[in-house]
Amino acid sequence: MVQNLPCAQVGKGELNFEILYSSHTHNHSIFMAIDSKNLKVLIGKQVEKSMLSTILESEQPLFFEELISPQIQRVALELVEKDIPEELSSFYNRLKAEEMICLLFTELLKRKNTTISALNELDVQKIYKIKDQILKNL
């Protein structure tokens, strides 16, 4: 069955992303949230006019979803199965989270259509209802 495809999601803004998932259900998603100011510092000044600069500069709520690449899956597994001393755990988690964010943005930058529009919560809810119906019928 195609349902519950493993995906990574990144969001920005005032959207309530908890509405996309039913409580007490298992899903195969990685949701990443980071403050855009911190992300700008991490990436540095090399961001040109691209989808990434639009994401960083936009004041509008944004939401992206991408199938989990094998590289993102590997890093997620490393996070879950880590064998790191407790004193280094926070540092390790931050590095791995940054690596996953970098890998996700690498995938997003491969998209051909880089038109970005702001979403509202109702739009996101409707999109996910339609997505669920399509996946159920495959």
The percent range for strand residues is 5-15%
Order of strands, widest sheet: 2-1-3
State the distance separating the first and last CA atoms.
8 Å
Largest sheet: 3 strands, mixed
Specify the helix fraction band.
40-55%
| Oligomer description | single chain
Computed CA radius of gyration, to the nearest angstrom: 16 Å
In total, how many beta strands? 3
Protein structure class: mainly alpha
Overall 3D form: globular
* pLDDT < 50 stretches: none
Number of helices: 5
Residue-averaged pLDDT = 76
Order of helices and strands: EEHHEHHH
List keywords for this structure.
mainly alpha, 3-stranded mixed β-sheet
Can you describe this structure?
This protein is mostly helical.
What's this model, at a glance?
By secondary structure, this protein is mostly helical. The protein is 47% helix and 12% strand.
Topology (SSEs and partners):
Blueprint lengths: L6 E6 L16 E4 L3 H8 L7 H7 L4 E6 L2 H11 L5 H23 L12 H16 L2
Parallel strand pairs: 1-2
Antiparallel strand pairs: 1-3
Helix pairs in contact: 3-4
